[in-house]
Amino acid sequence: MNAPLVWDTQRRSRAARLERARRVTPGKQVEAGNIGALLQAVIESGDRVCLEGNNQKQADFLARALTALDPAAVHDLHMVQSVLALPEHLDVFENGIASRLDFSFSGPQGARLAQLVSGGRIAIGAIHTYLELFARYFVDLTPNVALICAQAADREGNLYTGANTEDTPAIVEATAFKSGIVIAQVNEIVDVLPRVDVPAGWVDFVVQSPKPHFIEPLFTRDPAQISEIQVLMAMMAIKGIYADYGVQRLNHGIGFDTAAIELLLPTYGESLGLRGKICQHWALNPHPALIPAIEAGWVKSVHSFGSELGMEAYIRARPDVFFTGADGSMRSNRAMCQAAGHYACDLFIGSTLQIDLAANSSTATLGRIAGFGGAPNMGADARGRRHASPAWLKAGQQARAGLQGARGTPRGQKLVVQMVETFREHMQPAFVETLDAWTLAEQARMPLPPIMIYGDDVTHILTEEGIANLLLCRSDEEREQAVRGVAGYTAVGLGRDRAMVENLRDRGVIQRPEDLGVDPRLATRNLLAARSMRDLVDASGGLYAPPGRFRNW
Amino acid sequence: MNMSAELESLTFEFPGTQVVAGFAPVLVGVVGSGNLEVLLEAGAGASCRFDVQTSARGFGTIWAAVCRDFHLRHPLAGVRVSIHDMGATPAVVSLRLAQAAAEIAA
């Protein structure tokens, strides 16, 4: 006879943790000065802990409290969080409190993360896309404790996240419904919230942070810094890809290249008669650079991963375009927007640092473990997609023409465009024979090289030299020459087979600006719908309020 | 500061087939950091001659390829191209040349 099975160990553990917490605080509200004692009471060594680190907003007060715990009492935590943005996110490893990490993106902490990994201080489980990490919260990486961030709480513990909801719903859902503990830092505690984003029943403790949480305006690009080459490439994107496929639903990666496209819609796009024919629905953070297109009537809807500092009043005044609550303020949601970008968009376009001869693309560079955030979800064909659209069908037809059997069965394909100038700053070539990712994989003992977008998902490469349509390539050799054929004067470009590239051009696999009817004389900054931050403010009717660092007036 | 001592001078000449009827000199771009000035003038003979002065030394091979590719697209005859460069990328150089060629074609 076996011992009777126990089915509620997690619930009992939760009860024991809450019992210990009662010695620190009798209710849900915790004094800021007691936060360390609370964390020590509810966190056990070996726990999986989600310390909410987003792309933009950060649970910085809770992060500092976690780093200050005594590693003799709390150690070997397994951190499961999407972004490592703050020094504290790595201090917990250096201080001996945490030892294992599963994450998505480390951006500014990438170099230090690589050092800690090579020094044996951090064991990385895996580097995920955002959606992939959120998915694992519901399978095998469910947090025992979630330390989250919201704008405000009421006396019961309901939370208002404000415009930057970001990861919070996914984290709380996974933790609260698997007997975990949810602790929220808030900027203020009020009697009545504008709206409830997280219900009090899912929240165990609330602490008012002494200072408002840190938030970064990541998606603001000053139009004054957009170059003529970026204008030229944006013209090619609009005429050679967006118009050619009739792209109505899309996601733009972050950067000046895509900001240029956004700023050319109401000028160049309008001159081509494309309003209403392209770019009506977006999965996109509220890019200030999109304001002129919105104001010119191009955009029907924008759903966002997070918000953007300074855009609050503008968004509030454009509820037909943005997703907003009954209170009027924006509601973003990274998990939902990643799903939207993956399944409901026909095109992703973004920049990268390196592209190889198979069109594999990566931003990984030596000495840094940075991850890719959402780009691999946006920049991948959605194999589970079943609904049709003209752009998706055309791409699928081009990829499958002449094929038989399973590979020839009709289906669509997502357009995935990598947009790069052939040389980056300091004459660093964007095209390489071998990605740094391979060396990095050896250095950090990764099972696979960290490739951001796989070559077989990339459908187009766009450079100042032209567009390579990889959907039309029928062999690895053709694909390689198509890549070389737009690689300009990099070593990869100079190594092209000129006859084969001309043949690809005759077949329309490679298109030069002149083949597209793009007039180089129009490629000036005068074509931008806004040429400065001040122009963006004016286009918004004064509703957009850029952060101070972007204001020079 | 005397910059001229640091400039590199390069010359390329290609036989042209596309004779351009007498045209007023065309100037595009400006001499500024990361930018360049391209001047197209009627020249002697049936060739297209490129005179490049650049502040970025050691990129002669790329200049040769950029000028050759431009001439393949626009095999101008009897034209002199003068370039004053302040470290423009090949992308900017090609754009300026294309803009200048579009001007004389217009």
Describe this protein's structure.
The complex is a heterodimer of chains A (553) and B (106). Chain A has 553 residues and is of the alpha/beta class. Chain A folds into two domains: 27-208, Glutaconate Coenzyme A-transferase; 223-534, Glutaconate Coenzyme A-transferase, CATH 3.40.1080.10. Helix content of chain A is 32%, strand content 14%. Chain A contains 21 helices and 19 strands. Chain A has helices spanning 9-21, 35-42, 60-67, 88-94, 110-118, 130-137, 168-176, 228-245, 256-271, 291-295, 312-316, 334-343, 375-378, 390-400, 405-408, 436-443, 476-484, 491-494, 498-506, 513-516, 533-539, and strands at residues 29-30, 48-51, 77-80, 98-103, 123-127, 145-153, 159-160, 181-189, 205-208, 249-252, 281-283, 301-303, 347-350, 354-355, 361-362, 415-419, 460-463, 466-469, 510-511. In chain A, the strands form three sheets. In chain A, strands 1, 2, 3, 4, 5, 6, 7, 8 and 9 form a nine-stranded mixed β-sheet that branches. The mean pLDDT of chain A is 96. Chain B has 106 residues and is α/β, with parallel strands linked by helices. Chain B is built from two helices and seven strands, in the order E-E-E-E-E-H-E-E-H. Chain B has helices spanning 60-73, 90-105; strands spanning 8-15, 18-19, 26-29, 36-42, 47-54, 76-77, 79-85. In chain B, the strands form two sheets. Chain B has a five-stranded mixed β-sheet with strand order 1-5-7-4-3, covered by helices on one side. Chain B has a two-stranded parallel sheet with strand order 2-6. In chain B, a hairpin with a 6-residue loop joins strand 3 and strand 4 (36-42). Chain B is globular and about 35 Å long. The model of chain B has no long low-confidence stretch (mean pLDDT 91). The chains are: A alpha/beta (553), B alpha/beta (106). Chain A binds chain B through residues 227-229, 232, 421-423, 427, 463-465, 488-489, 494, 513-514, 519-521, 523, and chain B through 61-62, 65-66, 73, 89-92, 94-95, 98-99, 102-103.
